[in-house]
# Entry
Amino acid sequence: MSKAEWEALPAEAKLTARQEQAALDKARSEERRAAYEAREREAQAQEAEYKQALASAPYGTRVQCLMEGDAYISGEWRRLDTSLFELIPDHPISVPLRTLDGRYQTDGSAEFNGYRVSFCDRQHGLSRRPERCGVMSGTRLQFTRGSRSRVQADQFVRGDMYCEYSR
# Structure
């Protein structure tokens, strides 16, 4: 509706239109809130499932990793605070990354398939942009003893990753 058409409407019609628009806005807001709450419930259920699977994972299927190095944040390489995370096969997780000074942060995504740890830019992931992933592979013996590897992922991270089986 043009401004001229709106101005030509009687006051009662304007009031009705405003009330209808307010009702539509309220319905959209309630839909967004319900969708947000559903996503939150799903995230909580996934977190609980992951924690249960992690707690019951037998030795040799649970790997603990430490990432030290730099992250590409806001167009610059910045020194990271050390990140520690645990993985089990078929359960990718989000890994928060913070700079040493605490001023910047971003999230990564990590997954373990039994012999390879992939640490990826959360936005792109291993399947979409493998060059944005740092990958560390190891044998059972290497993960039992603990293994360190230099990892580099374009415009994401560079540094050392140390991983070992955890109990």
